[in-house]
Amino acid sequence: MIEKVKLSEVKSNPNNPRLIKDEKFSKLVKSIKEFPKMLEIRPIVVNDEMVVLGGNMRLKACKEAGLKEIPIIKASDLTEEQQREFIIKDNVGFGEWDWDILVNDWQSQELKEWGLDVWQPETEVDYSILDEEDVSEQLEEMTSGVKKAIQIEFEPDHYDEAYQLVKFWRDQDAYVGKMILDFLKAEKNKL
Question: pLDDT (tens digit, 9 = 90+) per residue, 86-115?
Fold first, then answer.
């Protein structure tokens, strides 16, 4: 059931991993100012302690927009674990945009103003500076010490065991990549 409460009663969730920064946040504030009815259609979800489970960034944007009251829904029947799950699932972007429909039925400027990252015309990049300067030394310096990853495939029957072994050795602060490399070299030398 949707109820209106004082904005000051609702608490941001410090454990919400979702962020909206700079320009996108400004667009969210603008959309709330221009279309406040959106909040009634999609209210902020809170637990019994009035901590946000869904809508942390909308709450922040409501404060920025100067709202005094906001619509909420209390999710009173969720366990602690279900609340944690809700926080993530509420922020997961399921599905994808159908760009053909967007390009044919919507104005790109309008979509951009509403906060959707829209297509941009390709810009010409001048790469000629790379021809004029030798940047290999700088690249080597920048990537020095950076670990790289490769994918190793396992049969389904071996995956869990491999995962647990890698986890075990990482917990021992072992360099698993070097262990695998040493083993593979030794096996190659046997051939």
Answer: 887 876 665 566 777 777 777 777 777 776
